[in-house]
From TrEMBL:
SUPFAM superfamilies: NAD(P)-binding Rossmann-fold domains. This is TrkA-N:Sodium/hydrogen exchanger. GO terms for molecular function: antiporter activity. It comes from Richelia intracellularis HH01. It is a multi-pass membrane protein. Residues 404-497 form the RCK N-terminal domain. GO terms for cellular component: plasma membrane. GO terms for biological process: potassium ion transport; proton transmembrane transport. It is found in: Cell membrane. InterPro entries: Cation/H_exchanger_TM, Na+/solute_symporter_sf, NAD(P)-bd_dom_sf, RCK_N.
Length: 635
């Protein structure tokens, strides 16, 4: 068989296997690496012996380098500097102090438990300091953990990849050249990082200029120009200083993504496809080149090394790096568990195995086997259990509690009181000082400022809150505020009181803004009702026997403007009702019912504005036959 056809066959088999693994993982909603590694091993010499990566020769290293550049660039594109800034202290510590903790802890475990020589132990630890966005990204899509934890994990995975890769090459240089001076190692690390930041920053700015000003180019051609520039930047950085290219690609992606480039989504879509292809090819090739016998030959000591890395080193890392953060113990526990290793870790280990063998240094195959064992154990154990752990710890996006309300008025104060009584954090925002004082009188935290300022929303803690609710008297302002909150902070639930129109409906779907309470709610009218004492606060629980009748009866009252549903309690969780919410058996709703008795009668009966409304089952809703509800609502 001709050599060229053999190489062609190898690449075709690799692509088919890789895409098949991606399709299967998407169908089962699990990280793709769970199938990429087994597929690669199955096709390799230890399986059915169809795939032989060594046929590619030095071409394998070329494929690894160029594909890694694409993967890291795509990671940089997803690096939101504004979100990163909100958790910057913890993230900086994870990338700096956390790297050193993993390096020291991993090397001691590899030396004392795995019985590796100190140089090889340090090399192993330097490789596994990285986590990797290629594994964490798909994992977080399935788990849907709260935004603050997701931002930390994504930021750590993206930023620590180049830092860890450069650190690993510095350690390798030290081993190969016999230079044990730590000052030279530190200088080499900082020099590579500095070159990467400089070239990547300039290159990312150049890419953004092309997208903004080169209007004569089609979108398809612009995407290819960016790819050409990316690889050019990578090669230039590598020529100046080896392994500085990895930092270059991440910085270029981050600068480009945060330059307000029009139609950036088109580039993201293109680069996302290339990343999937690159990941598929790399994992299949590297897994096929792995010897299963070398993994079993490691012994129990190496298995204990990985366990110590997972259950001792990582928790210590998180403990020190998030010590002064506002993360609770549940969030820290999840961060301590989730640290899967990805493609950068695998590619560096494969390359180091080749380089050590070429230099006649023992341990090349062993370190590669130990790194792949780490990848397999972290991905399988953490990937399959992360969803269950997030639900058990109650840190999924749907479990996130807390409420930020824009607009201090009688109706919003009533809603805030219910959440505060549940022990959930509540923050209100309003520019009216007098309205703010009314909320403070009820021990509710208020920020007297404009919610259009994202800094105010950040001060309110929206990043860690479960619900954002805009309910000023201006519906258009409410909708704009909700859009900004959804785009900038992505809380799990974004609601607003706004008038129904085709334009707002389509926009709300796109930006995940829901209409609060009911359609076309007259908030000024209900605030006046509350001020005049012309309301009753009621509650009802839906039962399976009368669910349809209850729903229809209450819906009639809503449509006639006599009742406004406020809150829904389902399985112990309290949430603001949306206009299109479907009620189920066992749901308990809290509502306001208009009581049109004269204000004078209210005052004579002892009611006043400051008296808190009692929550009760109202006979107007609970006991009147459903056939008479329509008649009642007309009176």
């Amino acid at each position: 068989m001709e050599a060229s056809f053999e190489i062609t066959l190898q690449m075709v088999l690799t692509v088919i296997a890789g895409i098949s693994a991606q399709v299967l993982a998407a169908y089962l909603r699990v990280p793709s690496i769970l199938f990429l590694l087994p597929f690669g091993i199955l096709l390799g010499p230890d399986g059915i012996d169809l795939l032989h990566p060594h046929v590619l020769g030095t071409g394998l290293e070329v494929i690894v380098s160029l594909a890694t550049a694409i993967i890291l660039f795509e990671g940089g594109l997803n690096l939101n500097l504004r979100e990163i800034g909100r958790v910057s202290v913890s993230l900086q510590l994870l990338v700096t102090l956390g790297t050193m903790i993993t390096l020291l802890g991993g090397s001691m475990a590899a030396h004392w438990l795995g019985e590796f020589p100190w140089p090889i132990a340090f090399l192993y630890a330097s490789i596994v300091v990285v986590t990797g966005p290629t594994v964490i990204g798909p994992l977080l899509k399935h788990v849907n953990v709260d935004r603050q934890v997701a931002t930390l994990l994504e930021g750590e995975g993206i930023l620590i990849d180049p830092v860890g890769a450069i650190l690993a090459f510095v350690v390798l240089d030290t081993i190969l050249n016999g230079d044990t001076d730590p000052a030279n190692a530190i200088i080499g690390l900082l020099l590579r990082l500095g070159i990467g930041v400089a070239i990547g920053g300039g290159g990312g700015y150049l890419m953004s200029l092309i997208f903004k000003r080169a209007n004569f180019l089609s979108f398809e051609l612009k995407n290819l120009v960016v790819l050409a520039i990316l690889w050019g930047l990578f090669v230039i950085a590598q020529m100046i200083r080896s392994e500085s290219g990895v930092m270059t690609t991440v910085v270029a992606g981050a600068v480009f993504a945060n330059s307000s480039v029009p139609d950036e989504r088109l580039l993201r879509h293109f680069k996302g496809q290339l990343t999937i292809l690159s990941l598929s090819v790399l994992f299949i090739l590297l897994a096929a080149d792995l010897s299963i016998d070398s993994i079993f030959a490691l012994g129990w000591g190496s298995l204990c090394t990985v366990l110590v890395l997972m259950f001792v080193v990582r928790p210590i890392n998180i403990l020190f790096c998030t010590w002064n953060s506002n993360l609770n113990w549940r969030q820290k526990a999840f961060l301590s568990w989730v640290a899967p290793r990805g493609i950068v870790c695998a590619s560096i280990a494969s390359l180091f195995g080749i380089l050590l063998t070429q230099r006649g240094i023992n341990g090349g195959d062993s370190i590669k086997a130990l790194v792949f064992l780490t990848i397999i154990m972290t991905v399988v154990c953490q990937g399959l259990t992360a969803g269950f752990l997030a639900q058990w710890l109650r840190i999924t996006a749907t479990d996130t509690t807390g409420l930020v309300i824009v607009g201090c008025n009688p109706l919003s104060l009533l809603v805030a009181q219910f959440f505060q009584d549940r022990g959930e954090p509540v923050v209100m925002i309003d520019t009216d000082k007098q309205a703010s004082e009314q909320a403070e009188a009820q021990n509710i935290r208020v920020i007297a400022s404009s919610a259009l300022d994202t800094g105010v929303l950040e001060e309110a803690g929206l990043l860690s809150m479960g619900t954002f609710l805009a309910m000023t008297n201006n519906g258009e302002v409410n909708f704009v505020l909700a859009q900004r909150a959804a785009e900038e902070f992505e809380p799990p639930r974004v609601l607003a009181i706004f008038p129904r129109s085709p334009q707002t409906n389509s926009s709300s779907e796109k930006n995940k803004v829901s209409q609060a309470f009911s359609s076309n709610l007259a908030i000024k009218t209900w605030n006046q009702y509350l001020n005049d004492g012309q309301v009753k606060l009621g509650t009802t629980t839906f039962t399976s026997a009368e669910l349809t009748q209850q729903h229809e009866g209450i819906q009639r009252l809503i449509e006639t403007g006599e009742l406004v549903p406020l809150l829904l309690e389902r399985k112990g969780h309290l949430q603001v009702i949306t206009a299109n919410y479907g009620w189920e058996d066992g749901d308990r709703i809290i509502y306001l019912l208009h009581d049109p008795r004269p204000e004078l009668l209210k005052r004579l009966s002892g009611g006043n504005q400051s008296t808190r409304l009692p929550l009760e089952k109202l006979p107007q809703v609970e006991e009147v036959p459903m056939a008479k509800l329509a008649q009642l609502s007309m009176n």
